[in-house]
Specification:
alpha+beta; 3-stranded antiparallel β-sheet; 2 helices
Length: 98
């Protein structure tokens, strides 16, 4: 299963909104990749910005998979990838969703 860049952004918006108790539409996200820092996301919410590292992004993706697709996955099953855009490769069998 592959999550698009838009789905990763949605996952982070939903995750941050829940943590900050605000609406998902009040969160803005920009995904980045850098040779030194790897995958990061800059998040703007409540007039402040913060950076999420790859493990925080994967945490948001795990919650998104569970709430949106009813898939329970582990960190080891998710790999971020950069081609023309950042995507998430999820190594799960969607038929095993419960």
């Amino acid at each position: 299963m592959i999550l698009s860049m838009d789905e990763i952004i949605n996952a982070i918006c939903l995750h941050m909104a829940e943590r900050k108790r605000i609406r998902p539409q009040d969160v803005q996200v920009e995904l980045c990749w850098d040779e030194d820092t790897g995958y990061t996301a800059e998040v703007w919410a409540e007039g402040r910005s913060q950076y999420l590292v790859e493990s925080n992004m994967i945490e948001a993706i795990l919650r998104y998979l569970h709430t949106e697709y009813n898939i329970r996955a582990y960190r080891e099953q998710i790999m971020l990838d950069l081609d023309e855009e950042i995507t998430a490769q999820v190594d799960v069998d969607t038929e095993q969703a419960y």
